[in-house]
Design brief:
Elements (H helix, E strand, L loop, with lengths): L4 H18 L3 E6 L25 E6 L6 H7 L5 E4 H9 L6 E10 L8 E5 L14 E4 L5 H12 L9 E4 L5 H6 L6 E3 L7 H4 L2 E6 H5 L2 E9 H6 L1 H19 L4 H12 L4 H4 L19 H13 L16 H14 L5
Helix pairs in contact: 9-13
């Protein structure tokens, strides 16, 4: 049978559609801290990720710190970075990633009534104030990361500087308790879930918090490059809609027991070590239920970095954000569950 130009075109369209259905766009998302970063646990409740494998293919990828995601983004090996405000600014100013955009919230540090990252010393340490850190050794989980910036800002406020007055060394978050216990360092930077480890709590006390240094922070958020956003916008809307459903499930007190069980199984921790704080107001970070970042806090964080000399110039976050994707995702969620806009 002879095919016409129209039938050939139709066949091409159908073939393209079939390929699209068979191979949804891949969305590779980086994460650092298990459970604390939602990307690490999204697939534990697959029924909430209703579009996974259909309109997108989500792949979580683990990184040692948020700054290490920048080269992966630059090389095209990562699509969404779960990134700190500090690494975000570094990516734009130092790596020249002018096309980087804030997409959605992950969690916020120091919101009233919620958790703030802790900088800790041994309970019997002679270090009682920040001034006492002179001549001491402090750990940071990654130069240029959010807690690292908080530490350096606090040191600067007290007239102390790396190398001149305090020695800063990099130690991964999972290894900081051991470094402190073995007296390899005098102070550690600790974040959830590691800071809630009962073994750490038994030997350490808080010297100051990130909130003490910086005030409330848009601590971690999702960021992607404009090219990826434009090419995969529809898939991203579906993906973020699913993440909104997932975060609301985990944060709902009615689901606390199941959320703790899932998190405990994933992180290989006893449930009782998570039950008292995980996804609670008093023990965990603030997570916006609509996945919307606090842009005012983010601007303040960037301004502080500039004022303290960590950035050559401050950045206008409005220029480096595309919240239309998460806003459209939120509309989808509200339309599907009948919820009313707050």
């Amino acid at each position: 049978m002879r095919l016409t130009t129209t039938s050939l075109a139709l066949a091409a369209i159908l073939a393209s559609s079939a390929i699209s259905r068979a191979d949804p766009p891949q969305i590779r998302v980086g994460w650092v801290a298990p459970v604390a970063n939602f990307a690490s646990i999204l697939l534990l409740k697959p029924e909430l990720m209703t579009n996974q494998g259909k309109t997108y293919d989500f792949e979580p990828q683990h990184f040692a710190s948020t700054p290490t995601m920048i080269p992966a983004l630059a090389a095209g090996d990562l699509d969404i970075a779960t990134i700190s405000y500090a690494a975000f600014a570094t990516a734009i100013e130092n790596a020249g990633m002018e096309d980087l955009r804030v997409l959605a919230d992950e969690f916020q540090d120091g919101v009233d009534g919620y958790y703030s990252d802790e900088l800790m010393v041994l309970k019997d340490s002679p270090i009682k104030t920040v001034d006492d850190l002179k001549g001491k050794v402090a750990s940071t989980n990654g130069a240029g990361g959010a807690i690292d910036v908080a530490l350096r800002v606090m040191l600067k406020k007290h007239g102390l500087a790396d190398k001149r007055d305090v020695t800063l060394i990099e130690i991964g978050l999972p290894n900081e308790r051991a470094a402190l216990a073995e007296h390899k360092v005098d102070l550690i930077t600790s974040a959830i879930p590691f800071s809630q480890d009962p073994a750490l709590r038994s030997i350490a006390r808080t010297l100051f918090t990130q909130k003490d240094a910086l005030g409330p922070s848009e601590m971690i958020f999702w960021a992607s490059r404009t090219g990826f956003i434009a090419k995969n916008r529809a898939a991203l809307v579906d993906f973020l809609a699913d993440t909104i459903r997932a975060r609301r499930f985990y944060m709902d007190p009615a689901h606390h027991a199941e959320a703790v069980r899932l998190a405990a199984d994933f992180s290989k921790q006893p449930p009782e070590s998570l039950d008292s704080w995980l996804f609670t107001k008093t023990g965990d970070y603030y997570r916006d239920p609509d996945d919307l970042p606090n842009m005012k806090a983010l601007q303040a964080n960037l301004d502080t970095q500039h004022e303290e000399g960590f950035l050559k110039a401050t950045l206008d976050v409005g220029k480096y954000a595309d919240l239309t994707v998460v806003q459209d995702a939120l509309k989808k969620v509200r339309a599907s569950d009948g919820s009313k806009q707050r």
